[in-house]
Backbone:
């Protein structure tokens, strides 16, 4: 799971009665994704680009909004815009070495 503030076992107590939350919490083993290696970064980059390139003005109609966003997505896909991710598998192995050792043992 990523490091979002609601992604904590304690959030189970907000959603379930204490006994059920406790039972659920015991069933999970949490593995947090390093902040620098999160896939949401890619989604956040796309949302930021959408906001800057398409939603930089007030659009007062849902139909127009849907058309504008669809056109923006179509154009990005045609240009095959990519996110250039610099964090490699080797980087992840180095950063997560301790966790990999725990899994193997």
Residues:
């Amino acid at each position: 799971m990523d490091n979002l503030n609601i992604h904590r076992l304690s959030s189970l107590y907000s959603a379930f009665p204490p006994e059920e939350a406790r039972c659920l919490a015991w069933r999970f083993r949490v593995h947090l994704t390093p902040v620098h290696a999160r896939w949401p970064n890619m989604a956040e980059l796309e949302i930021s680009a959408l906001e800057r390139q398409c939603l930089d003005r007030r659009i007062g109609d849902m139909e127009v909004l849907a058309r504008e966003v669809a056109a923006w997505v179509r154009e990005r896909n045609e240009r095959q815009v990519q996110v250039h991710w610099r964090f490699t598998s080797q980087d992840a192995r180095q950063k997560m070495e301790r966790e990999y050792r725990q899994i193997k043992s």
